[in-house]
Amino acid sequence: MVNEMKNEVKNEMKSEITGESKIVTNTTEPEIEVKTATEETGDIIIEGTDIVRTFKMGEVQVRALRGVSVKIRRGEFVAIMGPSGSGKTTLLNQLGLLDTPNSGKVIIDEIDTSRMSDKEKGKFRLHNLGYVFQDYALLPELDASENVYISLMMQGKTKEEYEAAAAEILKAVGLGDRLHQLPSKMSGGQQQRVSIARALAHNPRVLFADEPCANLDSQTSKEVLDLFKKFNKEKGQTIVMVTHEEWHAAYADRVIRLRDGVNIE
Ligand SMILES: Nc1ncnc2c1ncn2[C@@H]1O[C@H](COP(=O)(O)OP(=O)(O)OP(=O)(O)O)[C@@H](O)[C@H]1O
């Protein structure tokens, strides 16, 4: 069953990665100012410099990012915040190598990713980065464990290794008793936990989360954010999370705020 799903998974991952399914209606041109990382010389894991991303929509050019520079330190929990259309997802996608900027650089762990081919980027993402999306992006035909270990299979781990790793991380997110449950039998919060387990199973250098609580009620959102905080504090997991909820900022060490031409920090 899992083997049969591999191609489908690859295609789904591809469309997730390319953002092909995203519907974009906002054609305004936001101006952006960013509360950039501090001048501290801590251990920088991500350095984005002068990132420009422009989208063409027919005759209209949407300048989503107008030269954004950010530094994120290893072990930091950073929230990217700002009003709708201010470029939060676009910035996350550049930092997470899900999209390519028109100009500017993204350096991850001293690796200049602008020199990578698409294939190299794909491999880098698979082995080094983890993603959580607002719609969970789980494969409905696979149970929790299979959803988690499919990317470990693709990385070439043995059956013993990937089954053990999936069980361990699902236990860590509080789903140790639901390894073989299908997503359709789970609540939204539980599905998001599976997707967090999937994102963390290979110990990524950075976890990227795009509005992970957008479809969850406040209590479940709190549980998901508590989980992020736990992995951040206990494992030193670097997390970059897009959110528009002000109360989520309290979970982050720092906020990168995008706003139409105004730095409100
Ligand atoms: N693929 C695309 N094609 C055309 N325009 C796009 C595309 N992606 C984003 N944009 C535009 O770029 C700008 C920034 O979009 P982005 O999704 O990054 O903002 P956001 O801050 O994440 O917004 P929201 O909070 O509503 O998700 C918007 O004007 C948006 O319409």
UniProtKB/TrEMBL annotation:
Parts forming coiled coils: none
Alphabetized UniProt keyword annotations: ATP-binding, Nucleotide-binding, Transport
Cited SMART domains: AAA (SM00382)
Residue ranges of every copy of the ABC transporter domain listed in the record: 46-264
Gene3D superfamilies: P-loop containing nucleotide triphosphate hydrolases
InterPro entries registered for this protein in UniProt: AAA+_ATPase, ABC_transporter-like_ATP-bd, ABC_transporter-like_CS, MacB-like_ATP-bd, P-loop_NTPase
GO MF assignments: ATP binding; ATP hydrolysis activity
PROSITE patterns the UniProt entry points to: ABC_TRANSPORTER_1, ABC_TRANSPORTER_2
Similarity remark: Belongs to the ABC transporter superfamily.
Full protein name: ABC transporter, ATP-binding protein
Organism whose genome encodes this protein: Methanosarcina mazei SarPi
